[in-house]
Amino acid sequence: MKQIKLSYKVDDNYLLLDYLYKTLINKSKNNVKSLLKNGNVLVNGKVITKHDYNIKINDTVDIDLLKVNHNIKILYEDKYFIAVDKPSGLLSIALDNDDEDNMYHYVRDYLNRNNEKVFILHRLDKETSGIILFSKNIKVRDIMQDNWDKYASVRRYIAVVEGTIDEQGTVKSYLKENAQHHVYSSNEGKLAITKYKRLKCNNKYSLVEIDLETGRKNQIRVHMSDINHKIIGDKKYNSNIDPINRLALHANELEFYHPVLNKKIKLISEVPSSFIKLFNV
Q: Rounded CA gap, 120 and 140, in Å?
């Protein structure tokens, strides 16, 4: 196991965050901020979480790299994979700015304790919650990514949509993405196929189980909008209904073929209670 605790004698007067940036040159700014936020940094034996804390020459700064306080809910882990439950509002991985808070950084920090690597296999939209699967092995990652639609045989979501949707149906279209990163149905692009089944409904909403035959960016959100049953809370696709203050889309089930163990692994993430409560009134 790699070194898990670092200790430094301060050589001048600094703000603590500036000193950490200067000292931990192999870590991203996001990671450094997380160390502070999570109580991993001690000054003269006292936990400090303030960015603007003044440290002085000859102070001792200790950094505990083993202590990881991110609230990672692990759904599955073995030598080759780790699956976690991503909350709504958190990026799967950084986009243009590596300082952005994201699930990949959290998992990386967790696996760093045992000197394990992490490779993302797929993504969820920032506003979507639920299962994300990572690989710990680059060869396994390549196998999975090259055969994702085949190996990830079940990709099931639960959504709350506007209005009363049909009991079941299939939506097919070609998806394109414009320069503003907005995905929409078109006469050309990548084929997307979404199957759905209504689970519950009332006079306002429907609780829907959704299965993906293809995994395109924003696929479910576009297709639900296309059939005039927008996902509630989906401002990007013009839903004006937001009773639970989030996008009501959750990656509920993932079943994948394990290329090393040669068996299927089934993962379940519990449907958010806020979805269900909309149908219990």
A: 11
Q: Which fold has domain 154-251?
A: Pseudouridine synthase (3.30.2350)
Query: At 67, is the pLDDT very low, low, confident or very high (cuts 50, 70, 90)?
Result: low
Band of pLDDT at residue 49, cut at 50, 70 and 90:
confident
Which residues of the chain form beta strands (DSSP E)? Answer: 5-9, 14-15, 41-43, 46-47, 54-55, 60-64, 73-77, 81-86, 119-120, 129-135, 152-162, 168-177, 183-186, 190-201, 205-212, 249-258, 263-268
Structure tokens at 259: 């290329």
CATH architecture label of 5-64: Roll (3.10)
Domain ranges of the chain: 5-64, 154-251
Q: How many Å apart are CA 145 and CA 255, to the nearest integer?
A: 15
| Residue 87 backbone dihedrals phi, psi, to 5 degrees | -75, 155
| Average pLDDT in the chain | 90
Global pTM reads: 0.76
Local structure of residue 30 (DSSP, 8 states): H
Q: What is the mean predicted confidence (pLDDT) over 215-227?
A: 95
pLDDT of res. 139: 96
